[in-house]
Amino acid sequence: MESQNATVKPAARPARRSRAGHGSWQAEKSHLMRMHILDATMKCLVNIGYSQTTTEKIAKQAGVSRGAMTHHFKSRAEVFNAAAEHITDIRVKEYDEAIRGVTQKSGTFPTAENMRDTITTLQSYYMKPSFLAFQELVRGARTDEQLQEVMGPLENSLDERMSQSMVTRFPIWADEDLREVGEALRDLIMHSLQGVAMNPAPYLQGDRLERLHGLLVETAMAQFERVYQARQQQVVAT
Length: 238
Fold this sequence. Notes:
mainly alpha, Tetracycline Repressor, domain 2, elongated
C-alpha cells in the first residue's frame, strides 16, 4: 500500500501546474488568434482593398465567428489600427531579410554592381503582399482621420527603422559626407520602386524596367563620385 500511495501523491502535482499555467496558455491562445485575424485583415486589404474590407469579411477570411471577431476587436477601426502596426512590423522584417542578401565591401562606397543588386532586391521587396496592404491603409487614411492619426507615425517609424537597418548592414551610409546624399538617393530609389509596385503597368517590365533600374544606378554612382571627389579635394588641401 505504501508503494501505491507513493505513486498517487506525485500524480496530483501536474494538475496543479496545469491550473497554474492555464492563464498563460489562454493568453497565448488569444495572442495567436489575434495574429490570425490580423493576417486575414492583410489578405483582405490585398484582395479587395481598404474600402471593401469589413469586419464581417475579415471574420470570413479568418474562418472565425463574428462573436470571436468582436471579442478580439470591437470595431473596424480597432482592427485596422492593430493591422497597421502588424503590417509595419512585417515590412521591417522583410526589409531586413531582403538587404541581408546584398553584398558590399565594408567601409567603401557601393559599386555599380552593388547598387543594381540592391535595386533589384528592393523591387522584389515592394512587390510583396505586405506592401500592397500597407498602401491600402495609407490610401484609406487620406479620408479617414482616425486612421490617419495611426498611419502618420507608423510611416515615419517604418522609414526610420528601414534607414537604421540599412546603416547597421552598411555602415558607410552613416558617413557624414554621404548622409544627406544617401538620404536623397534612398528617397529617389524607394519612391521610384514603390511607384512601379503600386502601378504595375504591363509595359514597365523586362528591358524597360531594367533601363529604369539602370538609370537609378547611374544617378546613384554619379552622386557617390561627387562625394568621393570632394573628399579627395579636401585631402589635397590639407
